[in-house]
Amino acid sequence: MTLAATSETTAEVTDLVQRLIRNACVNDGTPASGKEVRSVDLLESYLHAPGAEMKRHEPVPGRASLVLRIEGSDPKARSLHLMGHTDVVPVTPSGWRHDPFGGELIDGEVWGRGAVDMLDVTASMAVAVRRLLASGFKPKGTLIYSAVADEEALGTYGAQWLTENAWDDVKADFLLTEFGGARFPLGGGGPKLPIMTAEKGSQWTRLRVRGTPGHGSMPYKSDNALVKAAEVISRIGRYRAPLRLHELWRRFIEGLDLPTAQRLALTTAATFDVALDRAPEGTAPMLYAATRTTFSPNMARAGVKLNVIPDSAEIDIDIRTVAGDDGPRVRDMLREAIGDLWAEVEILEEGANPASESPLRSPLWDTLTSVTQKLLPGSETIPFLIVGATDARYFRRKGVTAYGYGLLSEKISFRDFAKMFHGNNERIDQESLRLTTELWEQTAREFLS
């Protein structure tokens, strides 16, 4: 790519991600939020070109998704789906140094909610598709691009709805979505770039703790449900689930080119926790989450009036499961964590979203590795898993090989990158936007030729 073309690509993807940020498609979890139709309108206009077949799906007013197809010449050839989402999570503006919905370009970085989760990917995919269309791209296998709603609230009106109601529009053999490609600060040699081949499940759980009501002026020896709930929360917060040094983890560690002693320490149960505490700053929370089911008690409610001792308290726990820990095992771990207070606890709700994974190697893996090494000579791809959730799980359940990827420059550290997801001061640098755009375009050309 010439210098002029590189500059043009950078400017184009920068402008598009800025406009998506300014649309402020904030998803607070309610059906009336999101209003992703604003970004669907933008992307449909941007992508309108000969050779593009586009459809909109809007299961409830305002919650729109866009699907674009470039049909392949060979129905038997492998197909590829590039999927982004357009909704973002809410913000607390006082925690930001710049307007979270301003989309400002400051020192080569675009600031705003969604800059890394995942409007950068959604925009770079769209720019890559537009460049393919403009070039007269005629693939053997079909290429699909989608910009879906509602990913930040489990995908009910987006990917889940599409896979259940419009499968013929979105089905593909392989899928790419968020997010890998952040340079892992471990190991020797060139950049180690994770391709997300799997993701943890979620089993969000609501507990109720019972007590006995009474007058708030006489708390001595009272049966206060909130006090008991506080102890339950503390126990869950301190709990460490069993360590799972699964095959994906071992493949990840092998790919890092670590010194022998460090590699053994991170793949041996007896030494793992000590090795984890010595990991580079910013990596330990993710490495911990990759090897254990995690329990995070994030919400609690109790009481009807300040002067009434509460007879009931509810606790919402964000539980993220590694493969094999789903279902009854979670309840067993909760019982272990809560201990002798288990008899005081009632389970009101339990989610059921099992972990999902794709093959560690595939033709798409090979193509991503080949393209990455052209764009970043000396780099290596390694498998890892997303410790949160993405829309990829709906496609994996249909037999699709799905990966999360992207390419980040050296400008934003791994530590800062990880902190920006759902955090303050979210931003993405222009070099990462350019690299990721080129990744998608070259991958489509090589994989579907």
Which key terms come to mind for this protein?
Aminopeptidase, 2 domains, alpha+beta, Alpha-Beta Plaits, 15 helices, 449 residues
Quick rundown:
This protein has two domains: 3-186 and 355-448, Zn peptidases (Aminopeptidase, 3-Layer(aba) Sandwich); 201-350, Alpha-Beta Plaits (2-Layer Sandwich), CATH 3.30.70.360. The chain starts with a helix and ends with a helix.
Let me know the largest β-sheet. Answer: 6 strands, mixed
* N-end to C-end Cα span: 19 Å
Question: How would you state the average pLDDT, rounded?
Answer: 95
Going across the biggest sheet, name each strand in turn: 1-2-6-3-7-18
Which CATH architecture of the largest domain would you pick? 3-Layer(aba) Sandwich
Q: Which class of secondary structure composition applies to the elements?
A: alpha+beta
Explain what you see:
The chain is of the alpha+beta class and 449 residues long. It has two domains: 3-186 and 355-448, Aminopeptidase (3-Layer(aba) Sandwich); 201-350, 2-Layer Sandwich (Alpha-Beta Plaits). It has 15 helices and 19 strands. The chain has helices at residues 3-22, 37-47, 119-134, 159-165, 167-170, 225-238, 247-255, 260-265, 269-277, 284-291, 328-338, 363-375, 392-396, 414-420, 430-448, and strands at residues 53-57, 65-70, 80-85, 105-106, 109-111, 143-148, 174-177, 192-199, 201-202, 205-210, 214-215, 294-302, 308-309, 312-321, 345-350, 356-357, 380-386, 401-404, 427-429. The strands form five sheets. It has a six-stranded mixed β-sheet with strand order 1-2-6-3-7-18. Strands 9, 10, 12, 14 and 15 form a five-stranded antiparallel β-sheet that branches. The protein is globular and about 75 Å long. It starts with a helix and ends with a helix. 45% of the residues are buried. The model has no long low-confidence stretch (mean pLDDT 95).
